[in-house]
Amino acid sequence: MVTPGDIEKWIRAGLEGCEVSADGDGRHFEARVVYQGFAGKSLVQRHQMVYKVLGDRMKEDIHALSMKTMTPDEI
Questions:
Q1: Structural domains for the chain
Q2: Is pTM beyond 0.90 here?
């Protein structure tokens, strides 16, 4: 079963230098991702970046992921 720690680890590995915190019950998760690479990106583009990092896990292991994505300047 996927844990919030797994989500954090996978996102950190794909978005180097980001800060991430996740919570969830094994199928439904919430994540807060702060990443300088989000600068100049729309909300949809930011979410697509995270989904790309998670890849097939979004189809197989994670039923739902709610995200808050921001740059360090937006905190």
A1: 4-74 (3.30.300.90)
A2: yes
